[in-house]
Amino acid sequence: MPELDPVIHAESRLRTLTTLNEVGENNQIAFTKLQKMLEMTAGNLSTHLRKLETAGYVEVTKTIEGRTPATYVGITPEGKAAYALYRRNLHDLLSGLT
User: Fold this and answer.
1) Which 3 state secondary structure label does DSSP give 80?
2) pLDDT tens for residues 12-21?
3) Contact 24, 47 (CB under 8 A)
4) Exposure of 62 by Cβ count < 10 A (0-12 exposed, 13-18 middle, 19+ buried)?
5) What pTM does this model have?
């Protein structure tokens, strides 16, 4: 039976990684925009991003734009690969393939 990555499997992290996967590997999205898209609190999103970042699935970049701090989030190549494997394994599991 295929195993589902427990880092990705939590609903909030799955939604986050799915959204970031659509943004693209070389593209990043502003933390605040991602937060609004996912309808999550800043603290909740930060917690899930830390877990994804620790696993190497996302990269968080903090910068200064003018005088304002800005945070951007992007999916890593490892994150794209892990997400693709998760989708395959979930499909296989739901299809009854082992």
Assistant:
1) helix
2) 999 999 999 9
3) no
4) exposed
5) 0.90
